[in-house]
Every structure is written in structure tokens, then in C-alpha cells.
Amino acid sequence: MINALASLGHWALNTLATSGRSLLLLLGMLAGLTSLLRRPRLVLLQIYSIGVLSILIVVVSGLFVGMVLGLQGYYVLSRFGAAESLGVMVAASLVRELGPVVSALLVAGRAGSALTAEIGLMKTTEQLSGLEMMAVDPVKRVLSPRLLGGFLSMPLLAALFSAIGVLGGYFVGVGLLGVDSGAFWSQMQAQIDFSNDLVNGVIKSLVFGFVVTWIALFEGYDAVPTATGISRATTRTVVNGSLAVLALDFVLTALMFGD
Amino acid sequence: MVKTRTVEIAVGAFMVIGLVALFFLAMHVSNLNQLTSGEGYRITARFDNIGSLKVRAPVSMAGVRVGRVESIRYDQQRFQAVVTLRIDDEFNAIPLDTFASIFTAGLLGEKYIGLDPGGSLESLADGDQIEHTQSALVLEQMIGRFLLNKAEEG
To answer: Same domain for B87 and B29?
Structure first.
């Protein structure tokens, strides 16, 4: 009985301490952002490894998601004689939800895990302490550029995902299933609102990019410096990052489209 | 390690591709290129019942879209809805005695305002009010009336 109580208390204290450490790390990284203005090259490298190297998987999955939306949407809509609304359905679901969410999940899996493993190994091989010995703040020098890189890459990847997805839906709907091309575009343009749909999608992807990179960096920085520790941290990055994206998406959707 | 120059080129290309995708979404997928903000002139119309008419609903003449609903408010004195319509500048010869009605696109579709031109030689200008209007047909009222007629017959 007492043991169960103790383990509950242990767990609660641990969780509290972890969230405190992650918040402190975040504050440290945010404080380091100003010094990045003098060294934009560091951010450039991170945009390369987070953004550019993710282009392929984002484009391919965007294409397939768009094509599947086109197929599925057509079968449902044509039953109601509304196949012309296919463009609206594909574009709305991509721009509002699937673009930001799926690309954030992909980034959490592809780039987030890489970030965690990289930082974790730096910690294990004492490169981070080495930097500290040279009076270089590892949080500012190593972590801040990665946070900014992820934050900047995410909306671009999400926009790419949505655009390719719409083209995939167009290819299937108009090219294969014979929906009228003019109706596909004109209905889409009439229904999709710039500030309501598009801007909200971009805001979502900015939030997701920030959170996913933050989680990945914190898990790496907080990892137990052993081989097992790094592997556990990498797993936690993907699991926690994906869950955070999905939960935040619900909150953001309720706030943005709730009225 | 990848060469610095390659990284720079790749990041530049990534930025361009991402921004092109955003631009494509803005111009081709959303309604940004149809937003003629501030342009056009405004006329008002009073309706007894606007049904489910929404702001930004189309205003059409002979089926051609000539403007949009800009705002809807409620007149407490006359118990009517006051709808402000923004008509595009190119359609500047709408007769003064034009008739405005609220129609439904399709059976259960969105409401829009249809203008039927009158015979007056003078045209509507900014700030004018349309005198002749017809309210929206509310489905429940129609069904109620239909049932009432049936009951009277039988």
C-alpha cells in the first residue's frame, strides 16, 4: 500500500521534474535565438537536414494521400450526385488537417528521431560537455539552430504536402474518374477561404514544427548517456511527438473552426 | 559531410519550392484571387426574412455573379434584416427599381441574392437602397402552409 503510494509519488515528481527541465531547456534555446542572427549558417545547415532531406518522403506521401482522397471522395460524393465537389473535399481536408498533421508526423519520424539520436550521441561522447569546457554554451550553439530550423521548415513542408496532394487528387479525380476539370477548380476556389483555411493551416504547421523539434531536442538532451538510453529517447521522441501533434491538432481545430 | 555550397543551393531550392507551394495554394486553391476587397460600390436591401443567407454569399444577375453580400444586420425599429451588397464596379448600370430576392442554389444548397432588373433609366449608385425585395423561402414555412391547405381540403 505504502509502496504503491510511493511509486505514484515518484512518478508524479519525475513527470514534474521532466516538464520543468524541458521548459528550462526551451527558455535556454529561445534565449539563444538572438545570437543566431550573427551566425545564420548554423540555421541553414539545420534547414537542410530537417527540411530538404524530408522533401522526398513528404512529396511522395502527399501524392498518395491526395490520390486516395480523390478515389474515396469520388465514391462517396458520386453517390449523392455531388462528384463536382471533389475538389473542395480534397483541398479542404488537405489544407486544414492532413497537410499540417501528416507532414508533422513524418517529420517527427524522419527528422525528429535523427535529431534525438544526434544530440543523445553528442551527450554520450561528451561533446556537449566539451563545448562547455571551451566556454561555448551547447544549448545556444547546438540546440537553438535546430529549433529554428525545424520551426522554419515545417510550414514549407506542409504547404508542399498540401499542394502535391491537391494535384494528386486532381490527377485521380479529373484524369482517371472523369470529374469536370473546371468544376473541380472553381468549386474549390469558391469554398476554400484564404484566411480561414489556408492561414490556419500554416499556423498549425508552425505550432507542430515548434513542438516536434522541441520534444526531439529535449529527449536527446535529457537522454541517459548509454546506447539503451539513446534508443529509448529516440522511441520517446517519435511516440511523444506524434501524440503531441495529434492532441494539439484537436485543440487548434476546436479553437480555429469551433464556432 | 555535405559541401557548404551544395547545402546552400539545396536550402535555397527548398525555400523556393515551399513558397511556390504556398503561392499555389493561395492563388489556385483558395479564394484569394477573387477577393476584391474594398472595390465596388455598396447598396442596401431590406428583407423580412433572409433565411440562412450568409455574409460573402454571391449576388447574381441573370445567373452571373455581380457582387457579394458584405454585411447583414438587424434593424430593431422595423424588425427587418438589412443586407449590404457590394457590387463590382463594372456592373454600374443596375436600374433603380431592381427587384432583389433570396434564392437557394439547388434543393438544400446555399442561399444567394438574385437581382431582377427593373425598367428605370436611372441606375443604383453607392449608398442606395433597393426598394423591392422578396424574402427567402423557408422550407418549414412552406411545408406548414402545404399541410394547412391539405387539412382545409380534407
So the answer is: no
